Queue: 2 jobs
Job 1
Amino acid sequence: MSDATAKQLALRALEQLPEDATLEDAMERLYFLEKIERGRAEARAGRTVTHEDVVARFGLR
């Protein structure tokens, strides 16, 4: 995401939630952001699958 710490990213995400957000909403947002960051780290490390491989693997053509 950026050079911000995990705590800074979490605080920013929570501040963007609406005032009536529940704790469950907050947890879902943080979980979602973690999954995105984990995927981006995997991509940076070269651990990706090409579109063609996905199509072949799932027999989509």
Job 2
Amino acid sequence: MVTKSEPLYQQQPLVVAGITIGLGLGGFVDGILLHQILQWHHMLSSVKPLTNDSNIDLNMVWDGLFHVLDFVLTVTGIILLWRAGKRDDVDWSSSTFFGSILIGAGLFDVIEGIIDHQILGIHHVKPGSNQLAWDLGFILFGALLVLIGWIMLQKSKKSY
């Protein structure tokens, strides 16, 4: 007797797309909120403080390049999402997708916070008094987003 088996579904294409989109969106939130609206820092503000026109221009260029990276990540994630949408074996789940976006956005904060704020020191979340607290809070917030996203992924796993 031949039986038709259940199709095997996978989360990976949706997870990869969501994480990539989350990395881009995390960068956009940082750039728009912290760089432009609050103006707490710019890409090179600890190395080239905004004390003259030349430094302001240089920081603006680097902020723009940062937004180009955010844009490329976001578009790449959308292309990956589009490709996943053409597959029959992808487990389409809002929890999987939004959990992955949270993981990506959180990873952005953790990676950017460790590399740019701590290792390279090219800028800090909010320079001045309590600078380290702001930097660590940024990293911890990112880690919290990763944790919440990971929990959402675990809850969305299905057994087939």
